[in-house]
Every structure is written in C-alpha cells, then in structure tokens.
C-alpha cells in the first residue's frame, strides 16, 4: 500500500511493501527516484553536517543539482523528519 507524503520541499509516496520512499517532487521539479533507508540516512547525515543558515546543494540521479536556500532549510528539515517517521514505524 502506498501512502502519500506532501511536504514543503519534498513530496512522494511511502511503499509499505518494500519499505522505500518514492520521491516524486523536489521543490517544483518532478522526479521519480526511490530512496532506500540507507540512502535516506546518508541524506539526513549530510544535512546534519550543515548549519540551518547555510544554503546547500543536493543532486538528483547524480546529475541534476538543486539548490536549497538557507530560507528553505527549516522546511526541508521538517520534511526529512516527516519522511523518517515511515522507517521509524517499521522498526
């Protein structure tokens, strides 16, 4: 069963069967990317190494750079926390 997540910066669907998050949108860019728990943990760790008042760059599919402005960091961190709850519920 798929459960939709619609955040400020990240949107997608949680797949209960595979325990993966299917990323559908980053900011206003439509994407189709599957995040495993390991990939998600690496993204979360990367964000934790940067201060909230810093802009950061993330890449999609190792080729599409997306700038996350410092003003959007709280929104992104909130989305990350919301998505993390899916994995927390499976353990």
What does this 3D model show about the protein?
By secondary structure, this protein is α+β, with helices and mostly antiparallel strands. The chain has one domain (2-90). It is 33% helix and 38% strand. The chain has a four-stranded antiparallel beta sheet with strand order 1-2-3-4. A two-stranded antiparallel ribbon has the order 5-6. The longest helix is centred in the last third of the chain and has 18 residues, at 73-90.
In short:
By secondary structure, this protein is of the alpha+beta class.
Question: Topology, please?
Answer:
Elements: E1 2-6, E2 10-15, E3 20-26, E4 29-35, H1 37-48, E5 56-60, E6 64-68, H2 73-90
Antiparallel strand pairs: 1-2, 2-3, 3-4, 5-6
Helix pairs in contact: 1-2
Integer count of domains: 1
Strand content: 35-45%
Please give the largest β-sheet: 4 strands, antiparallel
Biggest sheet, strands in spatial order?
1-2-3-4
Low-confidence stretches: none
- The N- and C-terminal alpha carbons lie at a distance of 18 Å
Work out the helix count: 2
pLDDT averaged over residues: 90
Helix share of residues? Answer: 25-40%
Q: Structural class of the helices, strands and pairings? A: alpha+beta
DSSP, total strands: 6
Order of helices and strands: EEEEHEEH
Radius of gyration: 13 Å
Tell me, briefly, the overall form.
Answer: globular
Features:
91 residues, 2 helices
């Amino acid at each position: 069963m798929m459960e939709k997540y619609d955040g400020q910066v990240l949107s997608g669907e949680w797949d209960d069967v595979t325990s993966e998050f299917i990323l559908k949108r980053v900011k206003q860019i439509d994407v189709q990317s599957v995040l495993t728990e390991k990939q998600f943990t690496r993204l979360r760790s990367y964000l934790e190494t940067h201060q909230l008042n810093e802009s950061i760059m993330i890449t999609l599919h190792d080729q599409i750079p997306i700038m996350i402005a410092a003003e959007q960091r709280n929104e992104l961190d909130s989305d990350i926390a919301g998505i993390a709850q899916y994995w927390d519920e499976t353990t």
